[in-house]
Amino acid sequence: MSIDPQHALSEVRKNYGSFNWWRNRVVVPFVFGTATRLHPGYPGYGEAVHVMEEDWDTLIVLDACRADYFEQVAEMDRYDEYSSRISLGSHSSEWTRRNFQGKRFGDTVYVSANPHTSLEAGDSFHHIYELWETDFDDEAGVVPPDAVRDAAIEAHEQYPDKRLIVHFMQPHGPFLGSDVQVTDESSYWQAYAENLDYVLPFVHEIIDAVHEKTVVTADHGQAYTGGIKDYLGIGGHKPRLRFPSLVEVPWAVVEGDRREIVAGEINRAEGEQVQDRLKDLGYL
C-alpha cells in the first residue's frame, strides 16, 4: 500500500489531538497489524487460502465464522473432509479485495447478503444477487438466511453452468438466532454460537439442493467486542489484523456431482444502498 506523504501530513495535522484517529488509523493497522502478521508463532503464516483457486462448484461463506466455533456447533459428520484454513483477511472488505477485486470471474455467480461484495468487487462476476439491496429486513437489521437460501437455489437453477458463491451474513450480528441479552463476554459468545446454529440448517438445505461439490467456509473470524479490546481498537474484526480468532476459518467439504463450468461475460453490480447497509450492519 503506497502512502501519499502530503496527504498523510495533512491528516496528522487535522487529527493530531484525536485519540480515536491515532488508534484506528495508526496503532491498529500499522502497530498491531504489522506485529500480528510478522509474529513467528502465527499459525499457517504465508499459507492463506485463495478461494477461487480451490476445487469446488459451490462455495458457502458464513460471515465472521470462527473455525473453533464452527467445530463446536456444526454436525461435523455431515462433511466428507474438514480442516481449518487461514483467510486472506480479517474483515469482509479486505477478504473481498484480496480474493476478487480487479479480477474477472465470468464463470461465477455470487449470491451475497454482504454489501462489500458489490462495493469491492462489483465488476468481477458474471452476476451478483445483491440481497443486501433487495432482501434486507429493516426490523432485523440484516438479510435473513431464508432469503439467502432461496436466492442460492434459484441461482443454481438459472445458471447451471456457473460456479456459485453464497454469502450469508450469519453468524455476524445482529444475532437473529438468539434471545440472549448480551451483557458480557460469556453472553456474547453464547448468542454468537446460537446464531451460528441458527444459520446452519439453511446451509444444509443448499447443499442438499445443489448435489455438487460444496465447501463451507468464512470470510474471517471474530474477536469479542468489549472492554480493553474496544479501548485498543482491536475488538470485532478489524482489517489487517492476524489474530488466530480473526483469520482461522472453517473449510468443510461435501463431495458431490460436478458441474460443467462455462465462462460468460462480466456484469457490473447495480445496487444503490451500499453505504446505508454498511451503516445498518455496523461497518460504518
Provide structural commentary:
The chain has 284 residues and is α/β, with parallel strands linked by helices. It has two domains: 5-38, no CATH class; 51-280, Alkaline Phosphatase, subunit A. Helix content is 40%, strand content 17%. It is built from eleven helices and seven strands. It has helices spanning 5-15, 19-38, 67-73, 92-100, 116-121, 131-134, 145-158, 185-210, 227-232, 244-247, 274-280; strands at 58-63, 81-86, 105-112, 125-130, 163-171, 214-218, 248-254. A seven-stranded mixed beta sheet has the order 2-7-6-1-5-3-4. Helix 5 (116-121) links the parallel strand 3 and strand 4 (125-130). Helix 7 (145-158) runs parallel beside helix 8 (185-210). The radius of gyration is 19 Å and the shape is globular.
Quick recap of the structure?
By secondary structure, the chain is an alpha/beta fold. The protein is 40% helix and 17% strand. The protein has 2 domains: 5-38, no CATH class; 51-280, Alkaline Phosphatase, subunit A (3-Layer(aba) Sandwich), CATH 3.40.720.10.
